[in-house]
Amino acid sequence: MIENRPAATVLSHLTLVLGVLIVMFPVYLTFVASTQTAEQIVQNVPMSLLPGSNIVNSYKLALFGGVTEYGSKIPPAAPMLLVSLISALVIAVGKIAISLLSAFAVVYFRFPGRSLVFWMIFVTLMLPVEVRILPTYKVVSDLGMLNTYAGLTVPLIASATATFLFRQFFLTVPDELVEASRIDGAGPMRFFKDVLLPLSTSSIAALFVIQFIYGWNQYLWPLLMTTEESMYPVVMGIKRMISGGDAATEWNAVMATAMLAMIPPALVVILMQKWFVKGLVDSEK
Q1: What is the pTM of this model?
Q2: Are 89 and 222 in the same domain?
């Protein structure tokens, strides 16, 4: 039985509220900066914590780009957001599709070296993109995939982690389901489509959230892959908007673009929160 301790309850809630405030304060500061002019941000030290009146101009400048009164050219964020969205969706869906099929093959097909194949896949967890980035770039370059969506997404699609998670889940599926499917005359792909996929929906949703955010936040690989502004994802665009040297940085546009870049992954987490939590904690099969 759980004891009712009001003091402990109040303390735990205060701790949670404090943690939320600490996490949200930089986001709020970014929003406040996006509602002010570049002059207000630079000249007012410390910066005001109250939203300004320049919100419409800042977000219009961030979304559609333009030239400021100081002569700074702001690239439009709308095409960069589209590139990031397409890349994140392709990476997330591709990782899940390949991982489902590879885990299905490893668990339900009997072939020589099955365990060796799985462990070879699992060992790739020790080789992140940063370790193999130069040979991967060489292959992609030789195939003529620079400045393309294929070059941005295909090298990042394979996922040993997702394969491992789906394999562990498939191992918990009762053998009686496999035998019943065989008796009904269902082939391997019919069993995969009608039995395994419905059972895996919560796991697929949880992995989709994780992989979407992973694809959205990619910076290093697009930095090598893209040389044309039309293929820049929004994370790269924010970095390139920050001027170096004596050039003035339009911080209001930078912060507005940062706020816009937070919206898609935040919406994915909010809309799929129920499935995400269920996929991580649900033990019912």
Answers
A1: 0.86
A2: yes
